[in-house]
Backbone:
């Protein structure tokens, strides 16, 4: 199968600065939603499926270490100006790590009437309509160390991996190649997606219910 790679956003300093600013704002919004227990609005009837458990221990370790460092530096640094700077940076770093965890928690995968909404914090948000889904199954894969979002060429097509801690747990086979919106622009058309979920069997079961409903006579996307 031959695919044409779509044009990708060229990495320039202004683009990097804009992306950093957007990411920063997204982190603080996520922290706001998490602390105030106000999840972002979702599609009525959708069920949420988290993917945080694989990285939660690592994130909590960094958060605890960051919190411990703040009073330690206050005690050992003899210069008041330096202490103030380090204090500000330490508090900012601590909140940033908490914001990162919040972004993963308040943006779960969603199985809703219009499709399967796949997310990875504030880095990825793509809805796959049910009429584009052939099947789903729970199956774990371990990937080599690398980027969380990556593509793989196979003999039958292109796979998009959206991994958490280098793991995926749900295989989504598509009925037709789709381009997925990524940070640097849409991906080349993919024929399969592999994502992580804390409870892959629950996600697959709910998604198959939705998939079956759309294929019944009179369903929203009956084949």
Residues:
């Amino acid at each position: 199968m031959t695919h044409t790679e779509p044009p990708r956003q060229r990495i320039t300093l202004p683009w990097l600065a804009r992306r950093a600013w957007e990411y920063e704002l997204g982190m603080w919004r996520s922290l706001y939603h998490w602390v105030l227990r106000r999840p972002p609005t979702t599609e009525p009837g959708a069920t949420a499926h988290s993917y945080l458990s694989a990285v939660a221990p690592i994130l909590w370790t960094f958060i605890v270490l960051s919190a411990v460092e703040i009073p330690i530096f206050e005690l050992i640094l003899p210069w008041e100006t330096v202490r103030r700077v380090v204090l500000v940076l330490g508090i900012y770093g601590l909140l940033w790590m908490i914001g990162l965890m919040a972004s993963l928690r308040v943006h779960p995968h969603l199985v809703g009437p219009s499709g399967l909404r796949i997310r990875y914090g504030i880095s990825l948000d793509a809805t796959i309509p049910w009429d584009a889904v052939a099947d789903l199954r729970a199956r774990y894969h371990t990937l080599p160390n690398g980027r969380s979002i990556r593509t793989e060429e196979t003999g039958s097509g292109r796979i998009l991996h959206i991994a958490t801690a280098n793991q995926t747990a749900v295989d989504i086979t598509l009925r037709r190649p789709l381009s997925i919106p990524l940070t640097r622009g849409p991906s080349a058309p993919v024929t399969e997606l592999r994502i992580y979920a804390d409870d892959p069997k629950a996600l697959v079961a709910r998604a198959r219910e939705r998939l079956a409903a759309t294929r019944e006579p009179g369903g929203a996307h009956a084949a």
The mean pLDDT is 84.
